[in-house]
Design brief:
Helices cover about 45% and strands about 20% of the residues. By secondary structure, it is of the alpha+beta class. Strand 6 and strand 7 form a beta hairpin.
Length: about 230
Amino acid sequence: MSLMDFVVTLGWPKQTLHRLIISMTDQGYLEREGRFYAPSRHMQSIANGILQFAPALSIRRNILLELSEETRETINFVMPTDEGMTYIDRIDTNWPFRILLPVGSHVPFHCTASGKAYLAHLRSGKKQRLLAELKLNAHTEKTHTSVASLDSDLRAVRKHGFALDDEEFLENMLAIAVPVFDDQGRYFASLAIHGPKQRFSRDMALGAADRLKHCAERITKATFEHPSYDDAT
């Protein structure tokens, strides 16, 4: 956000906000990117810690369990960090043949379903800056290695509301992810399913898209909707 974004959102005096933002930047809570300010890694760590202990965690966990029982595949809740897309929560499949990406693992933005769901929902200017800086390393023969090819895919992701990883990160692995939004309609995280193509086909992935979107909406509601006094009593 720019200084004026803060002013418009909070309605505070510009000078007061400027002093506060400078102080938060000096203390390591914000990072300056040109005329914009973004949460630092330290701030993101604090926010993630708060969310992990929030009451919504148990609801989210139950939603992931539901999806795992329905699909019999691995379900992931993934968020962007400096290192890439980071696995925050997951429910593993019970199949002996599985793809192990434990909680805390980092995977690339450009060749994963969760990463493409994130990139597709960035503001246009930020997306183009990030695409220009990303190292589009080829992990398989299907990995996007050009900005033009990746950006074309991201436009389709934005249009259809889901992203596919069809052997772009690992051979014989297919994944589908949808964005989880906050209560302002901004990207918050990705909800994904992945499995080996021998068992989890492209048609199966596409067939799960609407169910994933519904579950993402439930996570949004659980995470960001504030209960009323009547609900609490």
